[in-house]
Amino acid sequence: MNIITNNNGLDYYLIGTENDYSLLKGCSHNQFQFVVAWKLHETEPNIYEWEQGHYFDNIGSACSCFDRKIMPFDPPYMVLA
User: Fold this and answer.
1) C-alpha span between 39 and 50 (Å, rounded)
2) For the chain, what percentages of helix, strand and coil (3-state, to nearest 5) are there?
3) The pTM of the whole model exceeds 0.85
4) Number of helices (H) and strands (E), helices first, in the chain?
């Protein structure tokens, strides 16, 4: 797992990335341990920022959000008569 440093000095584990979204876990104990970041990019050597983030205190909520972002549409369903 890669460790990235945000432009505010906090370190995050990069858990996964797909399309324009990344799932991050804070390395230190801050208020929000997990971030679903949109458009993560490097601004300086080894310094990163993101355009928008959704912040969570548990992995379940963060993973649910990440899944919805990378697959925003509900799967097709059948109507039974």
Assistant:
1) 5
2) 15, 45, 40
3) no
4) 1, 7
The residue type at 78: M
The DSSP annotation for 28-58 comes to S--S--EEEEES-EEEETTEEE-SEEEEESS
Determine the Cα–Cα distance for residues 3 and 12; give it in Å rounded to an integer: 6
The token pair at 18 is 């797909």
- Where does the pLDDT of residue 81 fall: very low under 50, low under 70, confident under 90, or very high at 90 and above? very low
At position 74, the amino acid (one-letter code) is D
User: In the block, which residue shows the tokens 């679903």?
Assistant: 36
CB 7 within 8 A of CB 45: no
